[in-house]
């Protein structure tokens, strides 16, 4: 192994501490604390763990956490009615509906019901459009965290060749938009891409978000590239990423581990977005560049 390990867990802890300091300043200026509402539908075990972690992290940062747990068989209209109540609740700065939702609910319709200015997950199409056009909005937490790690590792990203493997609305597409905004030359690869190894081999930055264990091989990686592994796959060998870590670590200059790489950044960035939402709602100035240097 020659690659440097990118310690997302440590980075996320530092970011969470900075958010906590920002919350204290916000409280002094606004006379209130930011609030985050998290909605969990059903009993999915992993989702329940993530929601509990989000609630704890929110409180640890000095913000107020509102948890709403709904039964798996709740109908879509009732879920949307809850979202609308949260939109109207002055104490709520951020609203998050934990995904995945049960199959009988149309997630896109639920996400559309969230006020874009409280959409701290950045999943509303208005925020996707803002990101695509360089307007202030909310950037989805996982790609935002990846971009922070990349800038910390590389400094200026401009002119770098980047490949994003995966084109989901939650990771791949916003990741590509962020890298484009940082003046990278971006390739978006997916299941129909021809000669994926060839495309990967040209990239200085590889972001893997395909959801397939050990899919990206070490020999595809260009020597010295920085590899960001977004995958979280449960296998009989335990939790592994989308990148064959052992192989890639022999050629990359730096790589995120799974676990302890990108994952912890997701919740830290959620807190960051909630703090930003509170500042915007109260019309209080907030120097994003000084804070984390990423995103609108
Ligand atoms: N509304 C949302 N739903 C989902 C999101 C999201 O950002 N918003 N992302 C994922 C789940 N997720 C947070 O919700 C999340 C996933 C993973 C981690 C994390 O820290 N992973 C650890 C490993 C944890 C483990 O052992 O299972 C790591 O990678 O080190 C945090 C948050 C889908 N749904
Ligand atoms: Mg560093």
TrEMBL record:
This is Bifunctional protein FolD. It comes from the Bacteria. The keyword tRNA-binding does not apply. Belongs to the tetrahydrofolate dehydrogenase/cyclohydrolase family. PROSITE patterns: THF_DHG_CYH_1, THF_DHG_CYH_2. One of its GO terms (molecular function) is methenyltetrahydrofolate cyclohydrolase activity. NADP(+) binds at residues 166-168, 232. The keyword Amino-acid biosynthesis applies. Residues 6-121 form the Tetrahydrofolate dehydrogenase/cyclohydrolase catalytic domain. Catalyzes the oxidation of 5,10-methylenetetrahydrofolate to 5,10-methenyltetrahydrofolate and then the hydrolysis of 5,10-methenyltetrahydrofolate to 10-formyltetrahydrofolate. It comes from Sphingomonas japonica. Homodimer. InterPro entries: Aminoacid_DH-like_N_sf, NAD(P)-bd_dom_sf, THF_DH/CycHdrlase, THF_DH/CycHdrlase_cat_dom, THF_DH/CycHdrlase_CS, THF_DH/CycHdrlase_NAD-bd_dom. Keywords: Amino-acid biosynthesis, Histidine biosynthesis, Hydrolase, Methionine biosynthesis, Multifunctional enzyme, NADP, One-carbon metabolism, Oxidoreductase, Purine biosynthesis. It catalyses: (6R)-5,10-methenyltetrahydrofolate + H2O = (6R)-10-formyltetrahydrofolate + H(+); (6R)-5,10-methylene-5,6,7,8-tetrahydrofolate + NADP(+) = (6R)-5,10-methenyltetrahydrofolate + NADPH. Coiled coil: none annotated. Residues 140-280 form the Tetrahydrofolate dehydrogenase/cyclohydrolase NAD(P)-binding domain. Pathway: One-carbon metabolism; tetrahydrofolate interconversion. Its EC number is 1.5.1.5, 3.5.4.9.
